[in-house]
Design a protein that fits this description.
The chain has 15 helices and 13 strands. It has about 400 residues and is of the alpha/beta class. It has 2 domains: about 1-195 and about 380-395, 3-Layer(aba) Sandwich (Rossmann fold); about 210-375, Glycogen Phosphorylase B (Rossmann fold, 3-Layer(aba) Sandwich), CATH 3.40.50. Strands 3-2-1-4-5-6-7 form a 7-stranded parallel β-sheet, sandwiched between helices. Strands 10-9-8-11-12-13 form a 6-stranded parallel β-sheet, sandwiched between helices. α8 crosses α13 and α11 (about 310-315) crosses α14.
Length: about 400
């Protein structure tokens, strides 16, 4: 089959972007052809071997031929864009739709897809329905957040769920929310969990000192706490910093990986709390992120909202236990297996859980964690189910 994958966000910096890249690679291994249409605002975007990429360029830090004169829209801020869909003008929304319509029509002519797999119950997915090609939608959770705050997009979202062939939920929790909103299309909804790329995230021995030297950190630390993700309000990094005020010691380092609109606020907060051993590393590629997970003793995921929690799964795949809030799919692979669950907004619970792992009061077998993730959540386990969904969508076409 030929599958046209469409996303509202770039392949890096968002969970849905990672999802698209992962399934494209898995589909390629199964002998299927894929093409990805996604927004980009840099000429240095991902290179996926054997997978056709069709970027739609937006304005950011560099001039790129054919780019739109505004940045790509977001449901919640992306590390490379803070323009929210709710703040876009009618003209920008129309230009946005037109740009993706042009890209879709070009690939329908050139790539000739059998199926379109669009990400998010949102604007581009609505455009993709205008062609005589079956459309499958994956709901990533942020679209449901958009439903909550921007009623003006409700009509588009209902049209998407009415006209698409299938709706994929990445967690059982998301499925329940989808069913509660789009009641007339409950029969279309199926859960296929969000898998991770086992070729990128796995347990490996690294020298803690050598990895830290790559970031110009030369002090020796016995224990490391890490966070990875967008630096946005809903990710709860401020809660981690408040907790660090109490668990931080001379031999404990906290690494914050990622970028976003909250970066400056978080740096000021760390200064105000007089945190001595918190380092902001910015965005890092996946190979570097694997090293960070492997040298860390615990990964903190203190999210206020979370559709799935792929970062937590990637850390567990590297043998690192997770302290996470009871959100999205996190309870199903964290509780009693991959780490400790806590209540949201509870800095005392967060601090206590991290301290218990750092002090070996609660112990986890890193080899078991890595095997647990590999045996239950690697992307290849779910790709056959996705292919079946594609085949079902073709019936009657």
């Amino acid at each position: 089959m030929k599958i046209l994958l469409i996303n509202h966000f770039p392949l890096q910096g968002s969970g849905s972007g990672v999802y698209v890249a992962n399934i494209a690679k898995s589909l390629k291994k199964r002998g299927h052809e894929t093409c990805i249409i996604s927004p980009e605002n840099t000429s240095y975007f991902s290179d996926l071997k054997g997978i056709k990429l069709h970027p739609v360029f937006f304005k950011y830090k560099e001039e790129i031929e054919g780019q739109l004169d505004f940045n790509f829209g977001c449901i919640d801020p992306h590390p490379r864009s803070s323009l929210l869909f709710g703040d876009m003008t009618d003209l920008q929304l129309q230009q946005y739709r037109d740009a993706f319509r042009k890209a879709i029509e070009e690939e329908i002519l050139e790539f000739k897809p059998d199926v379109i797999h669009a990400q998010h119950i949102w604007i581009i997915s609505n455009v993709a329905l205008d062609y005589n090609i079956p459309v499958v939608i994956t709901c990533h959770g942020s679209d449901l957040m958009g439903y909550e705050v921007w009623p003006k997009f409700h009509k588009i979202m209902y049209e998407v769920t009415d006209r698409c062939k299938r709706i994929i939920a990445i967690s059982n929790n998301s499925k329940q929310i989808i069913n509660s909103i789009f009641k007339e299309n409950n029969e279309k909804v199926v859960t296929i969990l969000n898998g991770y790329d086992e070729k990128i995230f796995y347990k490996e021995d690294y020298s803690k000192e050598e990895v830290l030297k790559e970031f110009q950190i030369f002090k020796k630390y016995d224990k490391i706490v890490c966070f990875a993700g967008r630096l946005a309000k809903n990710k709860g990094v401020d809660l981690l910093l408040q907790s660090a005020k109490n668990y931080e010691k001379e031999n404990i380092l906290t690494l914050i990986v990622g970028d976003g609109e909250e970066l400056n606020n978080l740096k000021k907060m760390a200064e105000g709390l007089e945190l001595k051993n918190v380092v902001f590393l910015g965005n890092q590629n996946h190979d570097t992120l694997r090293k960070i997970y492997n040298i860390s003793d615990v990964c903190a995921v203190p999210s206020r909202k979370e559709a799935f929690g792929l970062v937590a799964l990637e850390a567990i795949a590297c043998g690192t236990p997770v302290v996470a809030t009871n959100k999205g799919e996190l309870p199903n692979f964290v509780n009693n297996k991959g780490g400790i669950l806590i209540k949201e907004e509870d800095t005392l619970e967060l601090e206590n859980a991290i301290s218990k792992i750092l002090n070996d009061e609660v112990k986890f077998d890193s080899k078991y964690l890595a095997e647990y993730a590999k045996n239950n959540y690697r992307q290849d386990l779910f790709i056959d189910k996705l292919i079946e969904i594609y085949k079902e969508s073709l019936v009657g076409e």
